[in-house]
Recover the amino acids of this structure.
């Protein structure tokens, strides 16, 4: 058996601790995608919702607001993030969190109407098996809506600017705590279709959405945050200044904003198990 660190190790180690400590930063970065995610999820008043890879629970709490007579369970593999999620949600009895690896977690069968995820479904070793397990938690006819990154492209300010910051630091590749490959694992719609069809979903649709991601109050603040994701790195003053200059054009009255692209993926289960899949 391999001793190589898994993504679960990363989310229970420095990466997860960083997300937990800076949950408000990460929410500010990702909240711009909420309208597209929840528009696609089209939650009903009484829906029972499962939030996969819920992290510190920003979308779990938002789902509870949008399904005022429903309930929401957030599942995540990361203890530090779940601790943060619980601390932020303690007043709402309709929200519950479970620690588990969504690939194999023993979800209650057919217990949910809708599964949502904001960037929590890319980190699986076997995506088809994982989504099959998640499908088992959905009732027949249940819906899935998730957000995952689109491939970095020339029009992605975020990809381009973060790449520039990494280059200034003398780091060739993307910066992502060793998770960059997993982050991109569902970036090709053909792959999404293959995975979800294999897991029993139909009506699969991937819609491109581009929104602002907020990286900090101003360029200096954004650089501090960017560098905080690489603890122990010593950065020369000149490099820090050059990084600030790279971010300066993106300073706005609402902070440092970088446009970034995601797919909003929707799919559903057949009304009756075993019915033939069809396309959206
Ligand atoms: C990019 S973060 C997104 C967190 C949260 N959805 C948000 O929008 O703030 C990815 C999340 O997926 C979780 N995760 C990764 N692999 C997982 C797995 N196999 N099962 C459950 N959660 C997982 C991580 O712990 C992390 O909280």
């Amino acid at each position: 058996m391999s001793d190589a660190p898994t993504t679960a190790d990363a989310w229970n180690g420095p990466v997860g601790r960083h997300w937990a400590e800076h949950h408000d930063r990460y929410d500010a970065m990702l909240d711009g995608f909420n309208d597209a995610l929840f528009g696609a999820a089209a939650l009903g008043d009484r829906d029972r919702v499962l939030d996969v890879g819920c992290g510190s629970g920003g979308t779990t709490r938002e789902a509870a607001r949008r399904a005022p007579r429903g309930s929401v369970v957030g599942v995540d593999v990361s203890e530090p993030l779940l601790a943060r999620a619980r601390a932020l949600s303690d007043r709402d009895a309709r929200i519950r969190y479970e620690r588990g690896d969504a690939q194999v977690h023993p979800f209650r069968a057919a217990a949910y109407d809708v599964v949502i995820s904001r960037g929590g479904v890319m980190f699986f070793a076997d995506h088809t098996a994982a989504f099959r397990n998640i499908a088992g938690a959905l009732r027949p006819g249940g819906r899935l809506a998730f957000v995952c990154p689109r491939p970095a492209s020339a029009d992605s300010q975020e990809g381009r600017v973060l790449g520039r910051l990494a280059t200034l630091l003398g780091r060739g590749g993307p910066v992502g705590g060793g998770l960059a490959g997993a982050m991109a694992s569902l970036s090709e719609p053909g792959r999404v279709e293959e995975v979800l069809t294999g897991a029993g979903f139909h009506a699969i649709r991937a819609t491109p959405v581009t929104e602002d991601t907020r990286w900090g109050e101003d360029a200096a603040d954004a650089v501090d945050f960017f560098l905080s994701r690489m603890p122990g790195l010593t950065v020369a003053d000149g490099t820090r200044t050059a990084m600030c200059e790279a971010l300066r054009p993106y300073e706005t009255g609402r902070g440092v904003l970088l446009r970034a692209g995601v797919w909003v993926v929707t799919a559903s289960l057949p009304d009756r198990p075993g019915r033939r899949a069809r396309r959206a």
The mean pLDDT is 92. Residues 7-152+175-213+260-268 form a domain with the Rossmann fold fold (CATH 3.40.50.150). The pocket of S-adenosylmethionine is lined by residues 7, 11, 16, 26, 30, 53-56, 58-59, 75-78, 81, 101-103, 118-120, 123-124 (CB under 6 Å). The two ends are 41 Å apart (CA to CA).
